Amino acid sequence: MRVELQADCYAGLWAHHAEQARRWLDAGDIDEALHAAAQIGDDTLQRNAGGAVAPESFTHGSSEQRVRWFRRGFDSGKVADCNTLDARRI
Fold this sequence. Notes:
flat, single chain
C-alpha cells in the first residue's frame, strides 16, 4: 500500500512540475484529479461494492490517503516529500 501511495504522490509531483514548465492545467484540473483519487480509495470501492470497509485488506490506501499523498506531491514538488516507505503516517 505504501508503494501505491507513493505513486499517487509522484503523480502529484509530475502534475506540479508539468504545470510549472508548461502552464497547461485548467481551473479545476487538480480538483478533478483529487476527486478521481477519492473515488478509487479502497474504502470507497469496498463501500460501493456493498461490503464492509476492511482497512486490513487495503492494497492502494483509503480515499483520504490517496488524496493526501497526491496533494502532498503537487503542493511540494519535491521527490523527498513522497517517501511513504519511511513516513510515520501514511
